[in-house]
Amino acid sequence: MPRLTAVTLSGIAIAVLTAVGTASAVTGGDETPPAIGQADADLSRPEAEAGAMPHPAGPATAGVKDARRPAADALSGTDLRIPPGWEIVYARKERHDDRHVTVIRHQPDGYRLGGPHASLVLDADGTILGFTRLRHGDDGPLPDRRSAEEITLRFLRQVAPDHAAGLSVQWADRHDETAVLADGTITKISGMKVKMHHDNGLYSWAVVGPGGTILTYERDIAWDSGRGRRGTQMWLHDSWIAAREGMGERHAPHTPP
Question: Rounded to 5 degrees, what angle do the CA atoms 97, 74, 142 make?
Fold first, then answer.
């Protein structure tokens, strides 16, 4: 069974998978990671000490207290839920293409890339641009394609009615991801992914889990046609975060949107 390797960056031990990608999509993926250039790599990163390795994307605790209210406000009135007992382990200012966003990450056992997490990406107005709840134990039958589409569109009309009006469904299919539990066990989280295209040329999708639960939601995602890959940052995806911070190879799903 694949195990974890302890990687220490700036005095913080981070668990990284050695045999599979960290919290990476294993089927049904289409989020080929964008290039991680120097300009992107330097976003919100403190100056590194001479000779020091880049510090990881957390756990930045300075903004944790201030992040609780925006997170609660954004989730209020939606069907998106943070599991009980999961605390905010970091809150950081980043970019979603040309928009300033706050990335807020919750985990049950402290900051750990590759582990179960519930993350939010909020813009300056509190609009949810991304959400994921990667949790072990959401078992049960998955909805069929038609049901997944209906659940997704109903959810979008609830959380972003203006945005939903410009969307059209492209396809729906099974989508699996992996997470590493605290004891090193690799667990699979499955759902039905519904991929949508917006009139503005951007993409949105949701992953619907057992019982119609929304496991993941992303919107306003740009595709770089010239390079054949996603152009928008991937703050919900630990394999991308790890690569951005110099901690591992990027997973590169091959299916274009």
Answer: 85
